[in-house]
Amino acid sequence: MTGRATLGRSLWKVAFLATFAGLGAWMGTLIGSGWGSTGLSSFVNAAIALSLSILILVVLTVTALLVGWKRSDRFAAMRPMILAGGLFLGAIGAGWAIARAFAPPLPVVLEGRGLISLELAGLDGYSVQADALAACRSEASSEAVAAIQADSAGLVGAGSVIAMVFMPQGAGAAVEVQVWVRPAGEGQPAEVGWSGFAETVDGESGALRGQVAFSELVLHPDVSGVQPVGWPTNLAGTLRWSCAGWSR
């Protein structure tokens, strides 16, 4: 009976320690695969796993202190909890390392400088600023141009004109153009904007330079859904862009 009891206690300890090792490896995998991820569910899972891991370590520590509080041989009484905590931490580290080793690389978006020239018809008082400085942004994990924006492509009175081009990738994807008039200072009317799609595109989609023509950029309503007064309902024109390259 004594041998069976000893074997039973040994098996119980092995199962106890194996449980915490497996739990730690699972928690580490969740933390490693979700931390820094762009997916919301993965990030939430990682945060929950981290919180539960801290809670488990706290419970093991408190339990070890309570078990060994009035024992003559404290270390012997606390040893199973100490071993479980050590295995749990080590398994978390191993699970995290394995998850990070096999995790797909995060998408990288490149940025660079460029130039925009915006010619408009139908906007009274507009004066073009040729080759206005612009910011270029690439598609994720690609060198194809996704968007270009110039914050001062021209002037309307004292207000500046913002020009933006969006070039989604894919067969048949339409190039979107947006034009905004930003007031000169505080106390002026809110920004007024137009948007629409280019009818003709001179250049390949995602190219570092090109030109688009448009004839029906539609005026945006204000926050109350009313069309701003005193502005044309449609704009036409051409927009040329060039990006110098990417800053890595």
Description:
The chain is built from 3 helices and 10 strands, in the order H-H-H-E-E-E-E-E-E-E-E-E-E. The chain is α+β, with helices and mostly antiparallel strands. The chain folds into 2 domains: 2-102; 111-243, no CATH class. It has an 8-stranded antiparallel beta barrel. The longest helix is centred in the first third of the chain and has 33 residues, at 2-34. The protein is elongated, with a radius of gyration of 31 Å. The model has no long low-confidence stretch (mean pLDDT 84).
Give a short synopsis of this structure.
The chain is an alpha+beta fold. The protein has three helices and ten strands; from the N terminus they run H-H-H-E-E-E-E-E-E-E-E-E-E. The chain folds into two domains: 2-102; 111-243, no CATH class.
Task: Indicate the topology.
Blueprint: H1 2-34, H2 40-67, H3 74-102, E1 111-121, E2 126-128, E3 132-138, E4 145-156, E5 159-166, E6 176-182, E7 192-197, E8 200-202, E9 209-219, E10 234-243
Antiparallel strand pairs: 1-3, 1-10, 2-4, 3-4, 4-5, 5-6, 6-7, 7-9, 8-9, 9-10
Helix pairs in contact: 1-2, 1-3, 2-3
